[in-house]
Structure formats: C-alpha cells, structure tokens
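Exam prep: given the inputs below (a chain plus flavin-adenine dinucleotide), describe the expected output before reading on.
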Amino acid sequence: MRETDLLIVGAGTAGLTAAIYGCRSGLVCVVLEKGMFGGQIVNTTDIENYPGMPGVDGVEFANALHQQAEKLGAQILFESLEEITKGEDHWFYVKTSGGAFRAKAVIVANGAEHRKLGCQGEETFAGRGVSYCATCDGAFYRGKEVAVVGGGNTALEEALYLSSICEKVHLIHRRDTFRAHQKTIQRVLSTPNIIPHYQSAVVRVEGNTKLQSLILSTPEGETTVAVAGLFVAIGLAPQNQLYALLCQLDENGYFVAGEDCVTSCEGLYAAGDTRQKPLRQLVTAASDGAVAAYMAGSYIGGTFSQWDARGSLYQRLF
Ligand SMILES: Cc1cc2nc3c(=O)[nH]c(=O)nc-3n(C[C@H](O)[C@H](O)[C@H](O)COP(=O)(O)OP(=O)(O)OC[C@H]3O[C@@H](n4cnc5c(N)ncnc54)[C@H](O)[C@@H]3O)c2cc1C
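Solution:
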C-alpha cells in the first residue's frame, strides 16, 4: 500500500494551494485528481477579481498553480478517491481508482459539481446537445440556435459568450428578474441575439440521436423551442456522500467546517467550495488550502511521533 503524510483530494485552487503549503512545510503531499487539474476555473477565460492578477486566463492560472505545486514536490496523481475510512491507528485508509493509500491526514478539496435540471431527457442527451460548460462546448454550436438555463452570473456570462458565436441564445429563467451583477444584466439585455424567457422552466428535452428541441413551461402554457444545444447553468452542488459516515455534512451536503477548515473527523480538513462558507471564489479557496495545510501539519506533528523530528523544519518554513 502506498503511503503519504498528507493526502489531498482535488487538484483545484484549494487542493493545489494546500499542496504548495504542505510541501513547503516539509510534508510528503499526494494530490488525487479525478479529471483535469485546475478545477472549475479552467472554464473561464477572464478572471477579473484575483488580487494582483487582473484579467488572467483560467487555464493559465491553473497551469501556474500546478507547476508551482509540482516544483515544490507535490505528487499529482490522476486517480479518483472512491472510499475512505479511518483506522484505530489514526491513519486514513483510502481506495482510489488506481489502488490504495494510507495517509496521516486528509484535505478534501473536491469543490462542487454542476447541478442537473432533473428534467426528462437530460441524461439521454448529455454530451449530445446538453452541456454544463459553454466555454468548453460552445464552439460545437457555432452559427446555431442554443439555450442557456439559469438566472445568475454564470448563466448570464455563458449567454453572452455564446451570443458571440451562435445565431441566437434563448435565456431561460424561472423567475421574473435575473440574479446577476447589474452590469452583466445590462449587457445581456442589450445584446440583440439573446432572447430572455422569464418565469419559464424546461419540462423535457427531445431529439433523435442529438438534441433538437426543448419543451418549456411558461405562464402562457407549454411551448417548444428548437435548439441544437442546451447549456445548464443553475449552480453547483457538493459531492460529499463518500464522507457522510466520517464527518458531519450540512443539509445541502457541504462539510460543516469553519475558517480553520476543521471537520468533525480529527485529521480530515475541508477546503474550498466543498465546505460551508458565504463566498465561493478562488481567493477563498486558496486561503482555505493554506489554512488546511497548516492545520493538517499541526495535527500530524501532534499525532504521529515520527514526524516530531521534522517539527522544527515545519515551523521554520511557514
Ligand atoms: C465558469 C466559472 C467561472 C468562475 N469565475 C471565477 C472568477 O472569475 N473569480 C473567482 O474568484 N472565482 C470564479 N469561479 C469560482 C471558482 O472557480 C471556485 O470558487 C474555485 O474553483 C473553487 O476551488 P476548489 O479548489 O474549492 O474547487 P474546484 O475548482 O471545483 O476543484 C475541485 C477539484 O477536485 C476534483 N475532484 C472532485 N472529486 C474528486 C475525487 N473523488 N477524487 C479526485 N478528485 C476529485 C475535481 O475534478 C476538481 O478538479 C468561477 C467558477 C466557474 C464555474
């Protein structure tokens, strides 16, 4: 069985920052990533609000973090965490898609995933017209008619992005006003090929081998809109069922953990979008990664005697 001091689940902003801090403190750090490193931010081209890096591209940002973590010694493995338990010997025992690990401490930085609409046909046409990321898949619909579902910043930004490459964008929202920044709403409302559908919801999606139309429920009754693509942007949901037996989760599935990232399971920390917090952004994810690595280092130092000899190194590097 492979062994590490600190096992980090997720190579997004929180996880890679935890790896940077963990490695600098002298811990052996392994990061598990089930998809591509970088997490959610690779889906955006323009980050306006990360302090000191105005206008940086999401992929560029993720590449820089990845390189920084690897240069400091983090081992980033493209494996998914599938099972986790804690032994009476204080070690965490983990099963991954690539084998098994034991770790002295674990930081869960697995972010959150796109919420599904739950309508009829959504699963059938996923990847065949139904998408959860306009910047990833928008180019497949160049010159075509598409729809975006949602009323927040992400939905409106996706609609704006698609309006520059698609013929027409139907923006479907269940309320009568959007919940986005005023500046973004104004841009959407003044873009001629974005058609808002207020108080509307997708009842089902239809097609043959590919998506062809949406059935909307509107205040005037059901109506059909012919589209080649449907982009679902109705928010994110955590995927923490794996940890439900180890830790306390809240009613929405987020880890119950404060600014110190401490969960109800000793030695297991939750960092970034996966924990309860008022603001899910890069800057708060990075902050959590640093704090969680610091807390994990203190825990390992206190719990595993073989680490004590390195305790002074840990203090010096922070
Ligand atoms: C389109 C878009 C634009 C955004 N723009 C901005 C912006 O401009 N500024 C800003 O501050 N924030 C922005 N955000 C929000 C920001 O991206 C998130 O707050 C941030 O990415 C959270 O980082 P994280 O590390 O907690 O999670 P994530 O970025 O979600 O990373 C989690 C990682 O964990 C991996 N993972 C999940 N489960 C497992 C598992 N079982 N095993 C192994 N790996 C796993 C995932 O594949 C993923 O790579 C944007 C988000 C989106 C979607």
